[in-house]
Fold this sequence. Notes:
Blueprint: H1 4-8, H2 10-36, H3 43-52, H4 54-60, H5 63-83, H6 88-108, H7 111-123, H8 129-143, H9 146-168, H10 174-186, H11 194-222
Helix pairs in contact: 2-5, 2-11, 3-4, 3-7, 5-6, 6-9, 7-8, 9-10, 10-11
Amino acid sequence: MKKHSDVVFRPLFKLTEYLIIIMLLIIPIQIIVFSIAPPPDSVLEFFELFRENAFLGLLSLDFLYLINNTIMIVLYLSLFIALYKEKPVTSLIAFVIGLTGVVCYYGSNPSFEMMTLSKKFFEARMSDQIIYIAAGEALLAGYSGTSFNVYYVLNTICLLLFAYILIKSPIFKKSVGYWALASGFFMIIPSSAGMIGLIFSLLSLIPWVVFIGLLRLEFKNKFSL
């Protein structure tokens, strides 16, 4: 017989299953986009890109990660509910830290602001265009600034805490927790920390994909029947 909490939150776990599929599709799409059309190096190039192809401009500024991080909120909530009875304090801390990190990311992403500035830049007189270039430079500085780094660090801590609980959990397979731990290890160095940060960020995607894939199967087999 299923626990009452499992039955009550079954729709949430089912939703998480489908959202994980979307997340698994977003990751390769973003990699393909960055490989085929690398992001511009300057504000003027971003403005040109937005004028030529606004959607590609949004993708170049991680628009898909806005969707991905919204999914993360549901994923963290599902993990919190599934693990609360076993490690209530640790799971609550992990959820709050993860949620705070996701909120920080929304403030760091300048995709729509850059699109607006691009439009205003090309509508402005030449003497006024410098204003929009300066505003764009400020946005790009914040793109990998404090908010982004707080997001990255907090999500790393959140993932490591959930990994610990998953490894200790009698409900989930230990392999799920170990893959989460591996992904969290490679996330210790933020992606904004130069080339080594970029390498570690890319390496973290491999165990992350395995982790959420296994997690989806766990939710499907143990909570959504």
